[in-house]
Amino acid sequence: MADITDFDALRRALAENSEQPEGPARNARAEQLLGAAERLDIPLAVIEALGHQLKVYNYSSEKDKMFVPFARLLRMWDERPADFDEYEAHTLHWVFKWMSAGMLDQPHIPLASIEKWLGEMAHRYRLAGYSERAVHGAEFSVAEHLGDRSRAERAYAAWLAADRDAMTDCHACELHGQGTWQVTRGRDAEALRLWRPVLEGEFVCAHEPHTVLASSLAPLLRLGRVDEARAHHLRGLRLVRPMESMRGAYADHVEFCALTGNEARALELLAERPAYFTDTGQPRSRLAYLAVVALVTERLTELGRAGARVPGPAGRAWTAGELAGHAREEALELAGRFDRRNGTPYVGERTRARMAQRPLVERLPLGVRTVRPAPAPVAAPPAPETADAPGVAALLAEARRLSDTLQPHALEAWAAVARAARDRELAPRDRAEITDHEAMARGPEGIELFERASALYTEAGDLGEALAARARGAYGRALAGEVDAALRVVTGLYDEALALYAAEATGVRQTASVVMSRARILMRRVHEGAAQRASAEAPARAEQAVREVLALVGGRGADDVRLAARDAEARGMLAELALLRGDGGRAAELFGRAAAGFVGAGLPWFAVEYEAQVAVLAQQAGDLGEAERALRSALAHGGPYVEPIGRAQLHLQLAEVVGGRGEVVEAAEHAWEAAHWADEAGAQGSMLGGWARQQLGGLLLRQGRCAEAAEVLESALADLSVETHGDGAVVQTRWWLADCLSELDDHRAAAEHRLRAAEIARLWPEQQDHATLAHLAAESLGKAGLSTEAEQAYTRAGDLWRALGNAPFLVRSLRARGWLALRGEGTAEGACALMAEAVRECEQALRAAADPVAREQLGTELAHTHRQFGDLLARSATEDSGEAEEDEGAEEAEGAEDGVVQAAFEAALVQLDRAAALFGTLGADALHDHTGAELAAGRLEAGLGRPAQAAARARAVLAAYEDADDEDETVRARRAEATRLLMPEPRGGQA
Fold first, then answer.
1. pLDDT in tens, 265-274
2. Residue 698 CA: distances (Å) to CA of 204, 498, 631, 657, 740
3. What's the pLDDT at 883?
4. 144, 270, 339, 728 - which has most CB atoms within 10 Å?
5. Which residues contact 529 (CB under 8 A, 6 or more apart)?
6. Range 158-179 average pLDDT
7. At 168, is the secondary structure helix, strand, or coil?
8. Residue 208 bridge partners (DSSP)
9. Rounded to whole angstroms, how far apart are CA atoms 395 and 180?
10. What pLDDT is recorded for position 888?
11. Looking at the predicted structure, is the pLDDT value of residue 976 above 70?
């Protein structure tokens, strides 16, 4: 490799490769760099390249390659330890622990070799003067893997009792191991207690809390803490997804999906990492992965989806049933290899137990977009309680009971009758009812069946029901768009039915059915007219027909649930007519009465659509309390009978209402439910699913749950589109997502989303959002180290702020550009010119401002600008761009004799004096800013050799805080710095 010509170039290349993603490409580069190191003929170069190779192998799917470079390093150490510097000597002993774990992972390495290695590790640690803590930890890992409980307990106790030292794993990794042992012993709660500092961010490292989050999933589910488990899944998956070496943790996330009714999501995760099926470098993590693959696919097979296509090992297509068999066989074969090596059945027993797990939660919505491999199973209608399979007579009786009481599964019950009676001779009445209900099930496509049913009713001697069946067929024509034809037919039927009823030749139920069908058809004409050409008399005719229904059935509902339902439906129709007239208040009242009628009749599931209407009207009227009440009632009354798309809509509305009054946790729960039910609805729910996930992401962000919110919002973008949801929704989603990514320190990705959102907002008439997004994108680009792009974005934002007349943000963009110029490829003169421009813009806006609030804001901005100008001037003379402001004093003092530096300090002092004076006029809220500027000026005074002036500033700061609360961290810091400024400089030779 011609580009590696010296040791420094090699070290740069090693550092660059360390930053690359885990995987074969990084490993191959490490192998090339080792060759380049060998050509340098510098022993330490080879040692560092070997250590780098070890590291990348360890954090990859090729862990089995670690042993060769380690053996070479160990031989070099034994032969010439002086070739190792302090860091490499430490690293060599550190990776002894990797070797122990690595040997356990490889079933071909004999157990005797592993035990021998433990002794070698203990011997070398003693020689090097290290504690036995890491050695005991390694022995514990061996005993735990073998299933030797007593030895594991002894090693565990010795591990915790030994002193921590330089060879001890970090706190986060140790706590992970300790908690995992508690889980093995059945102590889930204790494990979670141990893991809490890692989960809460007190202890972290390059691979934690990644593995702790994954390991916590099943324990949390077993303890019923499902909300925490879901949060850990969303947060943890985001961490492990890009890391190839995390197959074991990734398997935990797949397992979590299988245990929570999210089999479809589990399949999506399997599809994301196809190499995990076959990578052989770490057999133990492959065993864990195969076990959960078997768990997922066997669960799908159990649910009747054995033939569903699923992702699997490359080279062929797989069904769930095929992959289940393959994964189980591979897992058990691999477990058997470990058990034969270990001489115990422990690994095989644990593998079988893992594959045999049952779901711990029937259904846990995850919020992320999931495509089901097959429709969800539909609940079967209740069957009559008989010892044997029910006969036709029993099925008929049950179907009549369900339809007479308008139960949700009535049509399914009649379908069961039809199947059972297919080859039987039935009475005309029985055949009429079967045909009638089959027609109802078909909707507009059942018109001919209604006619056949009518003929059978006539044959059975029920002329009223024959008319009712034909009236239902007429309504079917109206639903198919033939409203005029339907109305002609039903008008004749209406006259016949009233005549029969007057002659007492039919009952009120049959007559009401015909009268209701006529009212429904007239309502269809009203809605058709509202959408197209309004007919003046149509609403009046419809209302008259509806009132005839009420007059016919009024007061009879107590004895007949069907008549009660007619009364409630009619009131709902009157509500629709009131709504069309623009009388929202009357409509809400009538919808409420309709809902109450259904509930009172014992038919709460029919109340749902009316309660949903009440909620919409209440929201429009600003009565959020009533909207919330109606939505909760709709969900309670609908229960399992509401279609998935309806449930999604109700939960989404409730999320909006509850979130609007600040209850973001409950609102998020409803948004989770909305997203789940939208997915259950399939393609029909994709638009609603996008809305639900967008709202859920925003609600999670409001709770500070940025990792979870990012997962959900990224998923939402798959369904959101400008055409369907509007450009505002897309911009808001990318804005929220960028905020999340910024909090997660993924500044490059945050910048991308902010720029893409800004590009959409660029076309809006109002440019405030465009300017804000451009400014935020510039901040992200700067934090990502993309100075040139950040400069361009700040310039764009500044132009927009200028056009909008927003001086404070224009000034901020200029200040940011000044710092970028100093830290990047610009000159100090250019940076100072930008700061000077910021001062001029702010002063000009302040002179023009008349509003007191605006003047105060601009005064504050001008003070901050002078402060930053002073800092920039001082730093441009003495510091590298990356040093922190707090470290300025020492460097300033060292360069004070230089004329250029002194001039810069004097200019900086002028700016800091102006800043302090302005902050001093802004009252108590600006006290910390005022004292900060005074202390910065004091440091400059000291650097310029003016101790008296520096001391005077320090005393002024102490006086300002004379009565301040010492509990305030800023107060304590300011006092401490002022005290240091008052201390005399040490004389030469006294440090």
1. 999 999 999 9
2. 27, 58, 21, 14, 10
3. 40
4. 270
5. 535, 538
6. 95
7. coil
8. 205
9. 55
10. 43
11. yes
